[in-house]
Amino acid sequence: MNPLRKTIYLSLKVFVIILFTTACSSSNTEEVTDLTTDLSPDEIVNTAFAEEFPDQYESYMRNVYDEDYEHVSKLTEEVEPQLPILFHGYGFSIEYNKPRGHAHAVEDVMSIDRINEDSVGSCMTCKSTAVPALLDEMGEDYWSASFLDEVAPRTIELGEGGESEELSEYGHISIGCSDCHDPETMDLRITRPSFTNAMDRYGVDVSEANKNEMRSYACGQCHTNYYFDPETQKVTFPWDEGLRVEDMWEYYETTAQEEHDFEGEWEHSISGTTIVKAQHPEFEMWSYGPHGEAGVSCADCHMPYERGADKKKTTSHHWTSPLENVEQSCLSCHGDKSEDELLDRVDNIQERHLEALEESQDLSVKAHYYVNRMITSGADEEAIEEAQQHVREGQWFWDIVAAENSDGFHNPHGSMDSIRMSTDASNKALKVANRELSKLGEDLDELDRQIEETVQEVYDEEDPGKKHEHAVNEYFPNVLELEN
Ligand code: HEC
Ligand code: HEC
Ligand code: HEC
Ligand code: HEC
Predict the structure, then answer these.
(1) Would you indicate the residue range of the signal peptide (predicted)?
(2) pLDDT of 353-388, one tens digit each?
(3) How far is the CA of 469 from the centre of ligand 2 (A)?
């Protein structure tokens, strides 16, 4: 074992011990009630649970947004203005929204512009309670089946007494009870095999998990980074080397390529770089952040206790920002601080994070355009490839924290480290590009001016879905469309 691997391995072991043996004092041990139900073990409809569990169901219904809710695009100047450039050539540059409530997941996946004829069954995996049933019925074919032709219109037979439900008629089977609970006992459970398999490869048997661990694992089934295995299209979590952002990167640079023939999701049309798209790694970032290390679970903050109709203590099933309810979500542990003090701490973390993130994205934009110029001015092939490798790394390390939905809160240090690694990599790309372009006598001031102008045009376009069209032009052509 080489020394680097050994360090990773050792730190992993320590981390596994911390993460998976810390018991948390805050789990609900106060009221031990028998929750055995009369429901079928195959029940997947949320309304079927309403009668027996009215409080939890009522709070679940608070995940339904107002009818006139309008999606918040991440592509705008107020949010992450460089994304239409940074995701150029990939669906995320066309439509990319902030998440909303669990009750809308099916509806949202059905209507997003990123879904098209090439989309596969795997895209449904973190959206619907029907997925375990689909996996039973379709077996391994589920993952690569056509999303629009085979998965979305499928009719699910809903056990005894239940009506059949068409997946495209969303609503009752958006992320819900049976995803996290065994309908007969209401014990927490894992229903997504990708999580179980990845944890197993990583050395953790989730069937042995204790109650506190389950309060995070239930979320870790979906709130994780993943990719589709090219051969099977199966949802795969890249955790073989560990859960830290640098561990996942190590995996993408080795095992993913050697054993799965996976290099990335797409080729960037400005720099020609093959890019790995990061996805919402809440579970990973949390796992080595201050709360994850202390055994504070996702549910501790996102599912605080509240009083039900008959004043009984129940767990809130309204998954939203814990800052909406600091008293229940945070002060139960941080009783020595005031609400304002805590909110200030969070603001502080998030502001610093967003500022550093934007700077690293700016640098990544610049690196993509510099490599574009290397290509069009006929720079040395090997130098181009070297620069592209740095661009690829730079993009991964900002994207994995940009895709994380807490704006740095779940893991302030891990996020900052990642941003620093991104900046280092982008700077290396620029160094190579500077050297090569100078050799060719290119006017770098003019290049910078062109970048500034192009970026401004992207900002000036009002329609988020059209912004990407302004990211390429005569000076910076789409390199994938160039004739060799
Ligand atoms: C994303 C995962 C998830 C989903 C979806 C979910 N629950 Fe829960 N539920 C939990 C967690 C976590 C707890 C806390 C369990 C613990 O501490 O042992 C819980 C606790 C409960 C309990 C135990 C009593 C209590 O309030 O603590 C009941 C009953 C319950 N949920 C019913 C439901 C119903 C009904 C639905 C669907 C409308 C549902 N749950 C959907 C995760 C989920
Ligand atoms: C079956 C997959 C799945 C599970 C399990 C799951 N989530 Fe989610 N979650 C999603 C998806 C998908 C979205 C985005 C939905 C959308 O935008 O339509 C989401 C959105 C959210 C949001 C944003 C809600 C908003 O209104 O902005 C929060 C907070 C959240 N989840 C927390 C949790 C927590 C905590 C757990 C575990 C107790 C959990 N989730 C378990 C898939 C899941
Ligand atoms: C110590 C408390 C805490 C823990 C533990 C925690 N979170 Fe969070 N989470 C937060 C805070 C605070 C935010 C930021 C909310 C905001 O900016 O309004 C957040 C944001 C989020 C969001 C984005 C919400 C939105 O409205 O867009 C998701 C999704 C999420 N967390 C999921 C998880 C998951 C999954 C876990 C466990 C793996 C977890 N969180 C663990 C406190 C926590
Ligand atoms: C179940 C208990 C628990 C809950 C709930 C909880 N925390 Fe914590 N918090 C902790 C523990 C334990 C630590 C780590 C203390 C340490 O390492 O010194 C911590 C650390 C912190 C820190 C310092 C982090 C750092 O970088 O060192 C902040 C800030 C914080 N919590 C804010 C919050 C906020 C905001 C919420 C609600 C959204 C929250 N906590 C909910 C237990 C909790």
Answers:
(1) 1-25
(2) 999 999 999 999 999 999 999 999 999 999 999 999
(3) 31
- Residue pointed to by tokens 């005894």: 160
What are the pLDDT digits (tens) for 52-96? 999 999 999 898 877 777 888 888 888 889 999 999 999 887 888
Cβ atoms < 10 Å from Cβ of 14? 9
**Residue 288 tokens, joined:** 């080595």
pLDDT digits (tens, 9 = 90+) for 112-148: 888 888 899 999 999 999 899 899 989 999 999 998 8
Domain limit, last residue, from 336, 368, 387:
336
Q: Are 103 and 60 spatial neighbours (Cβ–Cβ below 8 Å)?
A: yes
**pLDDT value of position 171:** 57
**Alpha-carbon gap, residue 445 to 115, rounded angstroms:** 40
Q: Indicate if ligand 1 lies below 6 Å from the C-beta of 365.
A: no
What are the pocket residues of ligand 2 if the criterion is a CB atom closer than 6 Å to any ligand atom? Answer: 99-102, 104-105, 108, 126-127, 175, 179-180, 218-219, 221-223, 298-299, 302-303, 319-320
* Residue ranges of E strands in 107-265: 155-156, 165-166, 227-228, 235-236
Residues in the chain: 484
pLDDT at residue 163, rounded to an integer: 53
Ligand 2 center to 98 CA (angstroms): 11
At 44, the amino acid letter reads: I
Could you tell me if residue 156 is left (phi over 0), alpha (psi between -120 and 50 degrees) or otherwise beta?
A: beta
Task: With respect to residue 477, please indicate whether it lies within any of the assigned structural domains.
Answer: no
Token digits of residue 287: 């796992």
**What Å distances lie between residue 412 and 154, 214, 341, 437, CA to CA?**
43, 24, 17, 37
18 with 119, same domain: the answer is: yes
User: Residue 102 Cα, ligand 2 centroid: separation in angstroms?
Assistant: 5
Report the residue among 181, 185, 221, 319 best suited for mutation to probe ligand 1: largest number of ligand atoms under 8 A from its CB. Answer: 181
pLDDT at 1: 40
Take residue 70 and report the two structure tokens written for it: 């309008």
Rounded-to-integer distance, Cα 23 and Cα 213, Å = 8
Number of folded domains that form the chain:
2
Q: In testing the pocket of ligand 4, which one of 291, 297, 405 has its CB within 8 Å of the most ligand atoms?
A: 291
- Check which CATH number belongs to the domain holding 423 and give it: 1.20.140.10
Cβ atoms of residues 278 and 399 within 8 Å: yes
pTM value?
0.92
